[in-house]
């Protein structure tokens, strides 16, 4: 494994919860396994000549002196900046490529990340998704009203936000005019698209997170809504516990894993409520530290070994 060189890219250091950060955990585990590993952040990585990136070699911590390394020399560049995927996110990837990296080095695949919403699974997994509609204008709002008019409740999710920000639950209005009023407010008068989705009542039983590495199922945990809320908010006190998949969920994991592997997805954390995909985390899948804590196992080692498996070579 020594011939591998991994670069981990995050948001600025001061924005990270260091002892709970998935990327830092993976980076340190890679170093422990003898893999040449580096870390960098979006606020200083481009302070370098055009064919190089400013990075920090990973030793026992992240206090080493920064160095300049050619972007093309890394086997894998894990660009794990927090979503959403917007212009700033994509421009960071474009700058890395401009500095000499090939798009095939950047994981997860740039082409997939730029097109795949983390709130909507790919076509081959739509049968595992709740009923949903992307809505921006009144015509789309009408279609959504027809789809959900017999539901007791619905959920709206801004497509441009993450971490459950802006996610709301509604009692489904009886009239289309009332529904349109909600849509106008949530889309800011048709300027921003939202997702309207069926309310998954099984949320009170918890939300299952399945972690995958190149399509291989790693482990799962269960997350519970914050007290007095229907949303899972880890930073605000939502509890997590170890979870073992049911036989039915094992079949789902195999199907999801096959889709991820086909699409070249190196790291993913897919969330399920009642067996339906509610989040499709590809940009910066997290909660690895919590996953290890509740199971008492070193899953980072398993993930790193999957990443440097010759069968998954990207260059």
General description of the model:
There is one protein chain. The chain has 315 residues and is α+β, with helices and mostly antiparallel strands. The chain is 26% helix and 25% strand. The strands form three sheets. The chain has a six-stranded mixed beta sheet. A five-stranded antiparallel beta sheet has the order 13-12-11-14-15. The radius of gyration is 20 Å and the shape is globular. The two termini are 15 Å apart. The mean pLDDT is 94.
In short:
The chain has 315 residues and is an alpha+beta fold.
Content of β-strand: 25-35%
Please, how many domains? Answer: 3
What gyration radius follows from the Cα positions, in whole Å? 20 Å
Termini, distance in Å? 15 Å
CATH topology category name of the largest domain: D-amino Acid Aminotransferase, Chain A, domain 1
Q: What is the tally of beta strands?
A: 15
In the predicted model, the low-confidence regions spanning at least 5 consecutive residues are none
Helicity level: 25-40%
Oligomer: single chain
Largest sheet: 6 strands, mixed
CATH superfamily of the largest domain: ATP-grasp fold, B domain
At CATH's second level, what is the architecture of the largest domain? 2-Layer Sandwich
Q: What is the 3D shape?
A: globular
What would the average pLDDT be, to the nearest integer?
94
Question: Helix/strand/pairing class, anyone?
Answer: alpha+beta
């Amino acid at each position: 494994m020594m011939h591998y060189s991994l670069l981990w890219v995050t948001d600025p250091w001061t924005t990270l919860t260091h002892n709970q950060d998935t990327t830092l955990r993976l980076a340190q585990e890679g170093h422990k396994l003898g893999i040449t590993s580096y870390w960098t952040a979006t606020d200083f990585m481009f302070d370098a000549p055009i064919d190089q990136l400013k990075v920090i070699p990973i030793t026992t911590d992240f206090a080493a002196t920064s160095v300049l390394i050619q972007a093309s020399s890394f086997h894998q560049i894990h660009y794990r900046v927090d979503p959403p995927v917007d212009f700033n996110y994509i421009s960071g990837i474009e700058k890395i490529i401009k500095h000499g990296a090939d798009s095939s080095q950047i994981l997860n695949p740039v082409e997939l990340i730029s097109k795949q919403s983390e709130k909507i699974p790919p076509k081959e997994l739509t049968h595992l998704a709740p009923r949903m509609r992307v809505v921006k204008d009144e015509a789309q709002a009408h279609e959504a009203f027809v789809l959900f008019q017999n539901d007791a409740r619905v959920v709206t999710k801004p497509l441009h936000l993450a971490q459950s920000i802006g996610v709301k639950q509604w009692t489904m209005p009886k009239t289309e005019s009332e529904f349109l009023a909600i849509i106008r407010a949530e889309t800011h008068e048709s300027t921003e698209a939202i997702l309207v989705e069926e309310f998954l009542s099984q949320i009170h039983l918890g939300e299952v997170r399945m972690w995958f590495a190149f399509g291989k199922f790693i482990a799962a945990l269960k997350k519970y809504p914050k007290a007095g809320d229907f949303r899972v908010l880890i930073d605000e006190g939502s509890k997590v516990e170890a979870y073992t998949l049911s036989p039915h969920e094992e079949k789902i994991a195999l199907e999801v894993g096959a889709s991820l592997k086909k699409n070249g997805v190196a790291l993913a954390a897919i969330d399920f409520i009642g067996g339906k995909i509610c989040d499709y985390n590809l940009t910066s899948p997290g909660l690895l530290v919590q996953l290890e804590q509740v199971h008492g196992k070193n899953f980072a080692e398993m993930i790193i070994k999957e990443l440097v498996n010759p069968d998954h070579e990207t260059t």
